[in-house]
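ok, trying the design again with the full structure, not the truncated one.
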């Protein structure tokens, strides 16, 4: 990296950033951050209404923004959406592969249909999005894919049999795609959040016993906010991470230290 590029590491003027799960707490925060640094946004979420506010904010910032209400587990929907993004924006530069879900139950009570649903979104849908984005990135000569993993990718947390299995799969998916696509200039990495205040965790964290138990496991002594994750995604999407691929950057307040 020469000194002429150092001042422009976090500028995405004219670049296209695709974000799945864009209507959620973390996804919308990331969308706003990339727009702030000049990116145009393609937002994907199953719930169209959840993207309305962030779409309006991004448009008011003077960025191009399009929203796609699709189910990322549907292969045809993913293919058609990525083709439209390529046509409308002219490139697919960065994919924030974030959409996910969780159903917490003890393993012996876990319904097979629920297990398949969680794996279908968290791993199957993530694969479909990465595969289709990867096709365009390979053709255009490079790109960045950042998958959302979790501390559960490497921890055996109770009541997380499907979620932890899916995130462990995301860790391996990240490594395999990074290995296959490095020769084409496509970097594939992951961010591994710890416990973050989101719509997915609000019920768990509202319980005083669960909240205190979790806090005791975090050396920094607090639950994370969506804003705590922004730096990791921006870094991995930037030229500063051009020589990094196949890695998981954990953002967990020190949860994995012990």
């Amino acid at each position: 990296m020469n000194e002429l590029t150092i001042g422009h590491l976090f500028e995405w003027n004219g670049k296209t950033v695709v974000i799945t799960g864009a209507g959620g707490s973390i996804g919308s925060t990331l969308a706003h951050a990339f727009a702030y640094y000049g990116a145009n946004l393609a937002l994907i979420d199953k719930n169209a209404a959840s993207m309305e506010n962030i779409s309006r904010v991004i448009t008011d910032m003077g960025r191009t923004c399009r929203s796609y209400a699709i189910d990322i587990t549907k292969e045809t929907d993913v293919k058609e959406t990525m083709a439209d993004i390529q046509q409308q924006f002219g490139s697919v530069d960065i994919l924030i592969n974030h959409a996910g879900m969780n159903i917490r139950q003890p393993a012996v009570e876990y319904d097979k249909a629920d297990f398949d649903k969680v794996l279908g979104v968290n791993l199957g849908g993530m694969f479909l999005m990465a595969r289709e984005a990867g096709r365009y990135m390979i053709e255009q000569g490079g790109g960045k894919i950042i998958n959302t993993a979790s501390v559960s990718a490497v921890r055996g947390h109770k009541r997380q049999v499907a979620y932890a299995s899916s995130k462990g799969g995301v860790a391996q998916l990240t490594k395999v795609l990074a290995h296959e696509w490095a020769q084409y200039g496509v970097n594939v990495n992951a961010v591994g959040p710890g416990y973050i205040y989101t719509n997915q965790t609000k019920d768990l964290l509202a319980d005083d016993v669960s909240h205190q138990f979790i806090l005791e496991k975090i050396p920094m002594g607090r639950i994370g906010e969506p804003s705590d994750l922004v730096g990791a995604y921006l870094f991995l999407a930037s030229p500063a991470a051009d020589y990094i691929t196949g890695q998981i950057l954990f953002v967990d307040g020190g949860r994995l230290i012990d």
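Keeping the full-length input from now on. Strands lie at 16-20, 40-44, 65-68, 94-97, 143-148, 186-193, 248-251.
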